[in-house]
């Protein structure tokens, strides 16, 4: 087959998949400058090399746990979305992500859900729970847990910013999907800035340069000139650059502001502090001074997910991946508050299952965010941040007591399972969190009871059904054995039926993505 035909076929499949689910950009949305189209007859650009799966932070699927032997599950909550965005880019380009690239919780958290809003800033997290049949196994149930962070009313001004933007301008950043993409994305951020905000810009290649120091957020001329003047060349002094960026943030530290470094790179650190452990220790110390970190990853062949994840988590921030301008628009404009303005720090979730009701359980995703039971009330143990208005989701698959087939062989000498009472609690949920910059945790808790349960999948809330489709799709991409014969087509149908209002178009985009995967790989991922 001629070399251009696979790309053409992929494009046609994407067009077919999206034709029925297109959601236009809201009227009045500012558009960034569009790059010039290639000359007629010019050869198409060579596709970027796929990322190295060894550069990804991940672990094997969570195993089944016996509720009688290990009833407590504890994990760190976070709002990262990088894994989903990268997987979407690969699928749209005609390939499948490697299982190590797929973190199901980041697929779930790439979407907004209509969870209850916290009543006030005094309790900055509200909970949502739904229990319903699993779409891929009728003998099992899904326990859907949703959290939503406090977001001030629109009329209330957000805190001012002390923002240091740290941009990699090394030679590896020259392709269009790296530095040029970031320049266009940062241009879209400028209208979000205000006069009281203070912006600094640091670049790094073979050396480090302070381009802007403490410039007013409404100085559009200076900001635009600095962004447009960036050029890629040289090596990568990542460690020295981090030190410079944090020194600027510390010099301009404002206790009444959000003090944050935003690191934008393909993750290819090769000069200065190089190991994630060294950089993590450095960023942790800075976080304790009140300076947080958000990372934006770009590119494919040099993209170092493991490093950027480690840095963002150490810095109480979010790890974002951007494959195109829409990703940056979402990360820097639509989700600006969720990614930049903290609502709660060190957020931990703990679920205790009732062995009289639940035989076995497993958490879908969060493999790299597991904590020990005793970590839940240890204020020295770091956990994830929730940004303003952020919604996050966790889904457990459970096997009810008395189900026809247990997922693992029961113990020979175990006591026989008791028949649960009709009103018996299914589980108990606890959430621990700190106020931004706080030292001591606070807790909220609630029981998960039969009142949260729905007899059929169709009766479950729309958000729960859509999230089940997302979780199932992520498991399929991980080549998980837990979904049986359930496949892409079923995931697409379930998601499409639960799209709802979909104001931002992200759910329609997901349905199109799953249909594209089904069209390209009707027998499933390989």
Summarize the structure.
With 526 residues, the chain is an alpha+beta fold. It has 13 helices and 16 strands. A six-stranded mixed beta sheet has the order 7-6-5-8-9-10, sandwiched between helices. A five-stranded antiparallel beta sheet has the order 1-12-14-4-3. Strands 2, 11, 13, 15 and 16 form a five-stranded antiparallel beta sheet that branches.
CATH architecture of the largest domain: Sandwich
Order of helices and strands: HEEHHEEEHEEHHEHEHEHHEEEEEEHHH
Helix content: 25-40%
Number of domains: 2
Description of the structure:
The protein folds into 2 domains: 53-153 and 343-406 and 418-520, Gamma-adaptin ear (GAE) domain (Immunoglobulin-like), CATH 2.60.40; 161-340, 3-Layer(aba) Sandwich (Rossmann fold). It contains 13 helices and 16 strands. It has helices spanning 5-18, 82-92, 104-108, 179-189, 220-228, 238-251, 276-287, 305-314, 325-334, 336-340, 462-477, 488-497, 506-520; strands at 65-66, 72-76, 125-134, 137-149, 161-168, 198-204, 208-216, 258-265, 292-297, 319-321, 342-353, 358-364, 384-387, 391-400, 427-434, 442-448. The radius of gyration is 23 Å and the shape is globular. With 526 residues, it is an alpha+beta fold. A hairpin with a 7-residue loop joins β15 and β16 (442-448).
Question: Which properties best describe this structure?
Answer:
526 residues; alpha+beta; Immunoglobulin-like; Rossmann fold; 2 domains; globular
Topology record:
Blueprint: H1 5-18, E1 65-66, E2 72-76, H2 82-92, H3 104-108, E3 125-134, E4 137-149, E5 161-168, H4 179-189, E6 198-204, E7 208-216, H5 220-228, H6 238-251, E8 258-265, H7 276-287, E9 292-297, H8 305-314, E10 319-321, H9 325-334, H10 336-340, E11 342-353, E12 358-364, E13 384-387, E14 391-400, E15 427-434, E16 442-448, H11 462-477, H12 488-497, H13 506-520
Parallel strand pairs: 5-6, 5-8, 8-9, 9-10
Antiparallel strand pairs: 1-12, 2-11, 3-4, 4-14, 6-7, 11-13, 11-15, 12-14, 15-16
Helix pairs in contact: 1-13, 4-9, 7-8, 11-12, 12-13
């Amino acid at each position: 087959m001629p070399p251009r035909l696979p790309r053409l076929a992929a494009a046609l499949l994407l067009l077919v998949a999206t034709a029925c689910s297109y959601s236009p950009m809201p009227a009045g949305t500012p558009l960034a400058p569009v790059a010039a189209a290639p000359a007629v007859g010019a050869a198409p650009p060579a596709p970027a090399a796929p990322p190295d799966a060894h550069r990804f932070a991940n672990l094997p699927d969570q195993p089944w746990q016996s509720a009688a032997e290990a009833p407590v599950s504890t994990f760190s909550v976070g709002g990262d979305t990088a894994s989903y965005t990268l997987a979407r880019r690969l699928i749209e380009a005609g390939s499948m992500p490697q299982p190590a690239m797929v973190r199901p919780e980041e697929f779930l958290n790439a979407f907004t859900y209509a969870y209850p809003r916290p009543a006030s800033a005094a309790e900055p997290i509200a909970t949502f729970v739904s229990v319903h049949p699993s779409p891929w196994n009728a003998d099992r149930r899904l326990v859907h847990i949703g959290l939503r962070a406090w977001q001030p009313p629109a009329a209330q001004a957000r805190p001012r910013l002390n923002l240091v933007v740290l941009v990699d301008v090394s030679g590896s950043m020259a392709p269009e999907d790296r530095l040029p993409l970031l320049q266009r994305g940062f241009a879209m951020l400028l209208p979000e800035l205000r006069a009281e905000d203070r912006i600094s810009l640091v670049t790094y290649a073979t050396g480090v340069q302070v381009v802007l120091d403490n410039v007013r957020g409404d100085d559009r001329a200076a900001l635009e000139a600095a962004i447009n003047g960036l050029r890629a060349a040289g090596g990568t002094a990542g460690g020295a650059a981090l030190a410079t960026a944090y020194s600027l943030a510390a010099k301009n530290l404002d206790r009444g502001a959000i003090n944050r470094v935003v690191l934008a790179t393909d993750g290819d650190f090769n000069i200065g502090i190089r190991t994630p452990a060294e950089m993590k220790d450095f960023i942790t110390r800075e976080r304790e001074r009140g300076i947080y970190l958000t990372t934006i990853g770009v590119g494919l062949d040099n993209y170092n997910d493991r490093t950027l994840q480690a840095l963002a988590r150490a810095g109480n921030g979010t790890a974002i991946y951007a494959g195109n301008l829409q990703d940056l628009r979402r990360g820097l404009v639509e989700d600006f508050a969720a990614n930049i303005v903290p609502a709660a720090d060190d957020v931990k979730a703990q679920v205790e299952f009732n062995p009289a009701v639940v035989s076995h359980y497993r958490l879908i995703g969060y493999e790299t965010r597991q904590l020990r039971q005793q970590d839940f009330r240890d204020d020295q143990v770091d956990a994830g941040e929730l940004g303003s208005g952020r919604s996050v989701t966790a889904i457990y698959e459970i096997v009810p007591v008395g189900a026809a087939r247990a997922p693992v062989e029961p113990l020979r000498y175990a006591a026989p399972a008791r028949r649960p009472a009709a009103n018996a609690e299914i589980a108990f949920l606890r959430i621990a969190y700190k106020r931004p910059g706080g030292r001591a945790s606070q807790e909220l808790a609630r029981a998960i009871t039969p009142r949260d349960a729905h007899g059929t999948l169709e009766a479950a809330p729309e958000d729960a059904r859509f999230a089940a489709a997302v979780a199932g799709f992520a498991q399929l991409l991980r080549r998980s054995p837990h979904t049986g014969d359930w496949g892409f087509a079923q995931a697409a149908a379930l998601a499409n039926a639960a799209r709802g209002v979909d104001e931002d178009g992200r759910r329609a985009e997901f349905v199109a993505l799953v249909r594209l995967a089904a069209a390209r790989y009707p027998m499933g991922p390989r």
